Fold this protein.
Amino acid sequence: MRPLILFFLLCSSSVFSQSVESVKLVDLQKIIQATGDRVLVINFWATWCAPCIKEIPYFEKLNTDDKNAEVILVSMDYDLDPNTDKVNRFVTRKKIKSRVLVLTENDPNSWIDKIDKRWSGALPATLVVNRKTGKRELTQGELGEGELEKLIAKVKNQ
Amino acid sequence: MKTTFLMMLFALLWAGSPVKEGYEIGDTAADFKLKNVDGKMVSLADFKNAKGFIVVFDCNTCPYSKAYNERIIALNKKYASLGFPVIAINPNDPTQSRGDSFDEMVKEAKKKGYNFPYLVDESQSVAKSFGATNTPHAFVLTKELKVAYIGAIDDSARKPQEATKHYVEDAVNALLTGKPVTTTKVKAIGCGIKWKNA
């Protein structure tokens, strides 16, 4: 009996150790538009997107190393699969430390431009915003080594 | 003299403006010549009786391409006989996406029974000139290769039966009946084209 209880306890703790928040467009817009001192770094990704998964370590590293950067990984999985379990499992398995959101909106054409007019909707895409000045950069496609730092430097420059 | 000056000025201004890649609605697309999965070269000019084209940048590997696969086959089934054949083009760099190699394309076309061209855009120049970004990414062209529609096939990648807007069908239907295309550009989430490293 005891080992069984222990087993369940272990299971539940691993399930609840990570949390992925579901958000609507308005929530995401508020996050993007908020002012502050840090640089916001939003990566749009999905569990099915191989180049996205390849570049996640860059964001994870930034998240732990740079206190002046606010890193958010926004999953676009909902568009193909409304069940967000897959995202939860991925985040747990990969031990992702950055904040992870799932955008739960249908009809991408109605909101892609509201995130950034330059964005085609293709994944991956990364949006970097200087919260002090509002200056923003969008890059589409997989980032190479050092490119994220260049984007951050770009929004910091006047 | 005055006109020469104006022309020179114009040329200067033209050269100074940034190069814009990709077609806009109303632009005339350039024809191309690409290798099909049967090994033959295919151009739009080969389709003498076409009233237009449904050009789809597509691939083997992207989950969105997989989700839309049956719908793309159905588009060709419905519209090829009406004069609007599907022309599928795979622009992905196979060194980054092994499942998109020419051999894999041949296998995929055979397995799915494609009865439309599935062309390889090895240099990626056709995808670049069209301004394709995602797979699948549809372009509806008139007979004169004027771009009439750019974007998603419909508004529900997840389930075809949940789609309320059928953008490509609506565009082709409008062209077939001589009416203006009402929705001309639609964005969608999708897999970014795997561009070759510069």
Observations:
- The domain at 23-192 of chain B is CATH 3.40.30.10 (Glutaredoxin).
- The mean pLDDT of chain B is 93.
- Helices of chain B lie at 2-16, 63-79, 102-112, 125-130, 167-176.
- The first strand of chain B starts at residue 34 and ends at 36.
